[in-house]
Amino acid sequence: MSDAEEEPDRQAKCWANEVRELSYDMEDSVDDFMLCVEHKSNSTPHGFKGFIHRSMNLLTSINTRHRIAKEFRVLKSRAMEVSERRERYKIDGDVSKPNNTSIDLRLLAFCAETASLVGIDEPRDELIQLIMGEEDVAAQDRKVLSLVGFGGLGKTTLANQIYCKLEGQFQRRAFVTVSQKPDIRKILRNILSQAGYVPPKETNMDIWDEAVLLSTLQNFLRDQRYLIVVDDIWDETAWNIINYALPKDRNNSTVITTTRIDNVARACCSNQCGYVYRMNPLSNQHSRRLFFTRIFGSEDACPLFLEKVSVRILKRCGGLPLAIITISSLLACQRNQLKEQWEQILNSLGSNMELHPTLEGMRQILNLSYIHLPRYLKTCMLYLGIYPEDRVIEKNDLVRQWVAQGFISTANGQDQEDVAEGYFNELVNRSIVQPSSYRNGHAVSCIVHDMMLDLIIHKCRDENFILAIDDLHAMTGLHDKVRRLSLNLDGVIDGTIMETICLSQVRALARFGTSTYAPPLMEFKHLRVLSLDYLGRYQESGIFDLGGICHLFQLRYLKVEAHGEIVLPSKIRGLQQLETLEIDSCGSKVQVPSDIVHLRRLLHLIIHGQTVLPDGIGNMKSLSTLGRFDFGMNSLDVTKGLGELTNLRDLRISCTGRTEITRLLDGSISIKKIMDGVEARSMDALRSSIGKLCNLKYLSVDPPLCTDYSEFLDALSSVYPSPSHLQRLDLLYCRLPRVPKWISDLHNLYKLDLVVHDVLRDDVGILAQLPSLTHLYLHIQGIPREKVVISRTGFPVLKYLTVGCSRASALTFEVGAMPRLEWLKIYFDTPLWHKYGGAPSGIEHLSGLKKIYVRIGCSGDDSDIRAAESALRNAIDVHPGRPVAEIDRSGLCSYFDKVKDQLEDENVNTST
C-alpha cells in the first residue's frame, strides 16, 4: 500500500503493530548488550588485579551472554513470523524518500492575506461597531461579547482580528487562552503581564497564589479602559474566576470570549451588556477564495478541468475554514494537480458536513492529512501528541527531539537537524501545524489546533505511539508496553501507582502541569528524550534533584524548566549519547558537572542563569549551540577555550558579575554589583575567541548589570576578525558608544538589534551597506549630535525598521530611501519636545511602506504630548500610499525612563 492511497485494513494494522513492537524490543536488547560490553570494558582494571577481576567475573559474563543470546533467538523467531505474515497478507513495503523542504511561498502570501481570513471583514466590523458604537456616551458598563460555534469555524481568528483592529483604543489589553484544563494562575499572570503590569523589584509573580493574583489584577485594571480576549472557554467555573478578576467599572471596557458551548456563551453574557454572536460557515464565494488562494495563489488560477470537482469538495467541507484550509493545503502539496487525485480526495471525504458538522466528520477530514503524509512525516506528526493543548511548540525543541528519537533519515552527509527542519516546514505547508511566529520567512514556533490534536491523540492511542494522560490511575491495567509517556498532572498525585508499572521500555518522557510529582527517573532504563516542565509549580525555593539521570545511558535529549534550584549529578560522563542539554532554573545558579567536557556528542548546551563552566570546554568540538556563556563568572582559560569551539553556530554571552555585600559603619548593609575577571587579558581573550568562531550564525550579548563596563564594550567594538557568517546579531542591551566598524563585514547579516549612544554619518553608512539586512532595531540612547540621514543609496532589502530616539526630528529620509521598507516603528519620549520637537522628515519618501507604528513616551507635559501626536499624524498623512498608522501614547519607552534624567545635562551640539 502506498502512502497516498487509503488507511491500511485491520490485518495490515495488526502486522504493522507487531513490526513496530518487535523493532522496539530488538533495539532495547541491542542497547542492553552494547551497554553491558561497554560497562565491562570500562570498569575492568589493568594488570594482575585486572586478571583476577576478569577471572572472578567469567561465569557472570557467560551467564549474561547466554541470557542475551536467548533473547536474540526469541526475537529472531518473532521476526520470521512477522515476515511470513507479511507475505501472507501481501503487504506492500514501498518507502517514500524525504527531501529538504522550505516554507511554501504561497503559504506565506496566504497567511499574510488570510490572517484576517476571507469573509471575516463583515462580522468583524459589525462587532467592532457593537463594541464602540456608544463611545460618545460619557460612561458605559463593561461589555461582554461571546463568540460561539463549532470547532474550526474561525472564532479565535475573528476575536484576534477585533483585538488587533482596536489596538490603541484601550488603555490595557490582553489575549489569553483557557483550554479544557485551565491553569488559572497562569492565565491571570498572562493578563497582568500583557496589560502592562510591572511587579515590584525582587518580586516573583510565578509564586503568587490565586487570591493575590485576583486582587492585583482587580486593582491594576480599576479605573482603566481595557480589552481582554478570553479564548477557548469550556466551562462556567473558569469564566466565573476570570470574570471576578475583571472590574466592572463604567469605563467602556470590553471582554471577548470564545467557546464551542452554548451554555458557557450564555453564562459569559448573563449581564445586561452581554451579547452572544453565533459563528456561521463561510459562504460559497468566500470558501472558493480561501480554497483556491491556498492552492494556486489566486482565486482565478484554477484550471477549468478542476472546477467541478472543486465545487463538490468545497460542499463537503461545509464552509468550515479549518476543513477548507486542511484540504487545500493537502492538494497544494501534490506534485501534479491531476483530476484523479482531486477525485480521490473527494471520495475520501465521506458525508456532507454542510448542514450538520460533527466532531467525527471533522476528524475524518483532518484524517486525510495524516493518510496522505509520507511515512517519514507520519511519525513526526504523531509526536506532536506529547505536548498539551494550546502549547506553543518551539521548532528547535521539536526537531531536536525528532533527531533524538531516531525519526530523521539522512543521506550523503546531510545534517540531521537541517533535514528535520525540512520535515517541520512540510507540516506547516500541509497545515498540520499552524505557525505562531516567523523569522526571516521561516516559522520558528507553532501550535496545533485542538481538533487536529484530538486526531493525533486518537492515532497515538491506536498505534501505541504516545500515552498522554492527566491521571496516573489511567495507567493501571495497561496491556501494551508504554513507549512514550506524556504526563500533564495537577494537584496532589499518588506516585505509588508508578511503582507497579514497568517503565524501562519508555523512550520519551514529558512532564507538564502544576503537580509536585517527580517521575522515578532511574526506572526509565531506555529513555532517549526527557522533558520536565516544573514551571507550573508555584514554589519560591524548590529543589529539583536530577541525580537519577546518570543511569540513563541512552539519553539523547534533556530539557528541564523549573522555579528554584536544579541539581545535576556530580558526574555526567556516562551520558555519552547526550546531544541536547537545556536547563532553565529561572535565574538560579546551576552547577555544571566538571566531566561534561567529555560528552563528545553534545551539540546544544543551553543553561539559563549564572553558570561556571569547567576547564577544558575547548574539547567539546561538536558543540553547535552554547547559551549562555557567562563571561563574568568564568575563568580566563574557559574564555580562551571558547575560541576552540569552531563548530559553534549559536552563541549567547552574558556577564552577570557577582555581588559584593559590605556592612557600613552605621550597621546597614550595602549591596554592590561588581565584575569577576573583567580585565585586559579577559577582554582580549573574549575578543579573540569571538573572532575565531568561523561558523557562527547567531550572536547575542547581554552585558553586566553594573554601571561601569566600558572595557566589556570595548571588546565588542573591536572584534577581529569579524565572524563573517553571522546572520543575526543581538546587542540590544549593550549601549555601545558608536556602531562597531566590524559590523560592515557581516555580509550575511539579516537581523541586527543595536543600542548606541550616538549615530554619525559614517555609522549610517556602515549599516546601509549591509546587503542582506532585512530587520534593523536601532536605539540611539543619547541626543544625536547631527541629523540621522537615510539616503537613497543603501539598505537595499530592509523590510522592518525600528528606531528609538529622544530626538525624533533628527531622523530624515531622503527621496528613494529604503525602497523595500514595509514596516516602520518609531519610539520617542516628550520631555525635551520644547527643545528638540518635530516629526521625522521624509516619511512620505518610503515608497513601499505599509504600516507605521509610533509610540510616544508620555512623561512630558500634556501640551507636548498633544503637539507630538499632531506632528506625527501630519507627517504620516502626506504619505501617498496611505499606510496603516497607529500612534500609541500609553507609556514610557523602556530606555527613556532610565536615561531621560541624564539627557537634560548633556552638553551636545544641537546646531543641526
TrEMBL record:
<dbReference type="InterPro" id="IPR042197">
    <property type="entry name" value="Apaf_helical"/>
</dbReference>
<dbReference type="Pfam" id="PF23559">
    <property type="entry name" value="WHD_DRP"/>
</dbReference>
<dbReference type="GO" id="GO:0002758">
    <property type="term" value="P:innate immune response-activating signaling pathway"/>
</dbReference>
<dbReference type="InterPro" id="IPR058922">
    <property type="entry name" value="WHD_DRP"/>
</dbReference>
<keyword id="KW-0677">Repeat</keyword>
<feature type="domain" description="NB-ARC">
    <location>
        <begin position="139"/>
        <end position="296"/>
    </location>
</feature>
<comment type="similarity">
    <text>Belongs to the disease resistance NB-LRR family.</text>
</comment>
<dbReference type="InterPro" id="IPR055414">
    <property type="entry name" value="LRR_R13L4/SHOC2-like"/>
</dbReference>
<dbReference type="InterPro" id="IPR038005">
    <property type="entry name" value="RX-like_CC"/>
</dbReference>
<feature type="domain" description="Disease resistance protein winged helix">
    <location>
        <begin position="386"/>
        <end position="456"/>
    </location>
</feature>
<dbReference type="InterPro" id="IPR041118">
    <property type="entry name" value="Rx_N"/>
</dbReference>
<dbReference type="GO" id="GO:0009626">
    <property type="term" value="P:plant-type hypersensitive response"/>
</dbReference>
<dbReference type="InterPro" id="IPR027417">
    <property type="entry name" value="P-loop_NTPase"/>
</dbReference>
<keyword id="KW-0547">Nucleotide-binding</keyword>
<dbReference type="InterPro" id="IPR036388">
    <property type="entry name" value="WH-like_DNA-bd_sf"/>
</dbReference>
<dbReference type="GO" id="GO:0043531">
    <property type="term" value="F:ADP binding"/>
</dbReference>
<dbReference type="InterPro" id="IPR002182">
    <property type="entry name" value="NB-ARC"/>
</dbReference>
<protein>
    <recommendedName>
        <fullName>NB-ARC domain-containing protein</fullName>
    </recommendedName>
</protein>
<dbReference type="InterPro" id="IPR044974">
    <property type="entry name" value="Disease_R_plants"/>
</dbReference>
<feature type="domain" description="Disease resistance N-terminal">
    <location>
        <begin position="4"/>
        <end position="44"/>
    </location>
</feature>
<keyword id="KW-0611">Plant defense</keyword>
<dbReference type="Pfam" id="PF18052">
    <property type="entry name" value="Rx_N"/>
</dbReference>
<keyword id="KW-0433">Leucine-rich repeat</keyword>
<dbReference type="Pfam" id="PF00931">
    <property type="entry name" value="NB-ARC"/>
</dbReference>
<dbReference type="InterPro" id="IPR032675">
    <property type="entry name" value="LRR_dom_sf"/>
</dbReference>
<feature type="domain" description="Disease resistance R13L4/SHOC-2-like LRR">
    <location>
        <begin position="505"/>
        <end position="884"/>
    </location>
</feature>
<keyword id="KW-0175">Coiled coil</keyword>
<dbReference type="Pfam" id="PF23598">
    <property type="entry name" value="LRR_14"/>
</dbReference>
<dbReference type="GO" id="GO:0042742">
    <property type="term" value="P:defense response to bacterium"/>
</dbReference>
